[in-house]
Amino acid sequence: MINYKNKSIALCSMALALLTVLNACKKYNNPPQIFEEYGSGLNGQAERKVLIITIDGLAGAELQKVSPPNIGDLAKTSKYTYNVLTDAVSSDAATWASMLTGVSSAKHGIVNDSYIPVADQGDPDAPTPIFPTFLSRLLDVRPEFKTVTITTDAALNKYMIHADHRILPANDAAVKDSAVNIVQNNSAKAILVDFRDVEAAGKAVGYSADNAEYKTAITKTDEYIGAITTALKTRKNYANEDWLVIVTTNRGGSDTNPKPGFIICSNPNLKQGEVTKSGFNTMHFTGTTTDAYVKNDNGLYDAGTNKDFTVQIQVKINSSSYYPCFFSKSTGISGSTITGWMILQSGTEYGVEFGGSANGGHGKIQIGGNAIVDGKWHTITITVKLSNGVRTATVYTDGIQIGSADITSTNNISTPNPLTIGYRPGDIANAYADFYAGDVEYFNTALDGATILANIGLKDITKHPNYGNLTGYWPIDDGGGAVISNLAPTGYNMLMKGPATWDALGNDIPISRTPQNVVDGAVSIVATGPDVAGLTFYWLKVPVSSDWSLDGVGWLSNYELEFIK
Predict the structure, then answer these.
(1) Lower Cβ count inside 10 Å, N or C end of the chain?
(2) Angle value at C-alpha 184, between 179 and 186, nearest 5 degrees
(3) Is the separation of the CB atoms in 509 and 377 below 8 Å?
(4) Where is the signal peptide (predicted)?
(5) Mean pLDDT score, 140-144
């Protein structure tokens, strides 16, 4: 979720499990978030509680097609979206773990029904990630906050072991009966109800509401939800309670063909409104542990001894700093020792360095750039070309050639280090760049100067004359989650790690992007599966520790004027 002006979603690494924060800036002058005494209600009047209802395997688009009445009634007093981002790993276990832990599958490492996290197989030094569920968190910090879970899935039931009361019914009808009983009579702070008939129907006939069996499963589940919400309102103390009802899905569609999901956050005081992404929503890179990287490129971005290539990045650097790297396919640099290539900052200017130290070649051949720290976006382009036995690197700023160098003596610039945007050790320890990036491109050919200049402002990458050579294109406009999508015909996504933030910049955009009709101060929200945990903590007024490293965001904080009276 992103808000214009102070807005951020912090992301962190599996290996380091670092800080995640949300700096919520509102589209109007909201009061600060209120955290009353635990267990008491709003201003001593209403006790907050959460009911989470999941419909596995239901895409937002298919829910819209059916438009079932009971879910529709909840949507009338809600903030909602039918376009929840898909997760990096789309298995049942991975998507459920994302909702329950509040971090994406790129971090929690859970992939199958064992619910046992695994370390990054591409990094032999990576520790096994540990991200407890929100049920475990509540048990730890607020043991008086009782929780109930209801699911037909035995593996999931076991994974939710930290719930105070777990119910494992035989089928969805029994799930409904158990939920009706619980919401009428139980004093739990958080109740989670899982329906799986829609998923089962999808597996049988396809995940489309055009299939009668799938549509019937949706409407039957909606009837179950109607029974549960009706029972909720019959609670003896309902008038003194303040319920947030979250209806969502672990994943739209199947695990092999995932679709965007949905989330409906309903409370009687909320005005109906769709949460949407608006403007340019890019990553704010800062700090020494922040980067986006290709986990395993199978050699695609290794330039070796003779491969021609072009890399281009749109960048806005926010402050002067000396010698931090901000874009690379290299080792770190120590003195003159470096293998690969990197772009680094030099005060208000930048430079590009090449080396082949680990491969028996020359280290640290540098090409100086020019001043780019001026509050504006700039385009940096690097080409490497082999011609008649000479390998030449050329650097361009905003399409204008700045310098070149013979890098033949580097011998081989391949390195197992990943293609990385963000921090990499430079000439000064712990120096880092503070910057935004967008529209990063990688071509498996050396573009000529005329082509570079003619296309730095290209708005549609598919129109590029060398589109067939494009092996990586990362717009960095995802707006949330821990995955930076690659939109090239081939290549790989990037994964985020470190305390980076998604910022909504509105129309503060690179030359390669088209301005949008964005109202200054508007709220931009990109919902993700981990938000279920973030919203639960927010609604129950449980302050989130930075040590939890959540990706999930309690973005209802942007609408407090509607429900805090």
Answers:
(1) C
(2) 85
(3) yes
(4) 1-24
(5) 96
Residue 411 pLDDT greater than 60, yes or no: yes
Instruction: Render pLDDT for 421-478 as a digit per residue (tens, 0 to 9).
Output: 998 877 677 789 999 999 999 999 999 999 999 999 999 999 999 999 999 999 999 9
138: DSSP letter: H
Q: How far is CA 325 from the centre of its chain?
A: 23
Phi then psi for residue 553, to 5 deg, are -125, 135
Mean of pLDDT over the chain: 89
Residues 6+ apart with CB under 8 A from 272: 75, 76, 77, 78, 80
User: How far is residue 283 CA from its own chain's centroid?
Assistant: 10
What DSSP line would sit under 345-375, residue for residue?
EEETEEEEEEEEGGGTS---EEEEEEE--SS
Is the pLDDT confidence value at 21 over 70? no
- Non-local (6+) Cβ contacts of 206 within 8 A are 214
With b meaning 16 or more CB within 10 Å and e meaning fewer, what string describes 238-277?
eeeebbbbbbbbbbbbbbeebbbbbbbbbbeebeeeebeb
Which of 189 and 496 is assigned the larger pLDDT?
189
* Paired strand residues for 421: 292, 327
C-alpha to C-alpha distance for 181 and 525, rounded to whole angstroms: 35
C-alpha span between 22 and 6 (Å, rounded): 9
Please give the model's pTM, rounded to 2 decimal places: 0.80
Q: Where are the alpha helices (DSSP H) in 327-435?
A: none
Contact 138, 542 (CB under 8 A): yes
Instruction: For residue 540, give the 3-state DSSP assignment.
Output: coil
Strand, coil or helix: 303: coil
**pLDDT, tens digit, 9 for 90 and up, residues 66-80:** 999 999 999 999 999
Residue ranges of domains in the chain, CATH in brackets: 2-24+54-278+522-563 (3.40.720.10), 281-506 (2.60.120.200)
Read off the amino acid at residue 144.
E
Confidence at residue 14, expressed as pLDDT on a 0 to 100 scale: 34
CA gap 403, 312 in Å, rounded: 15
- In Å, what is the CA distance from 106 to each residue of 9, 381, 483, 484? 15, 30, 8, 11
5 conformational bin, left if phi > 0, alpha if psi -120 to 50, beta if neither: left
What confidence score (pLDDT) does residue 396 get?
Answer: 98
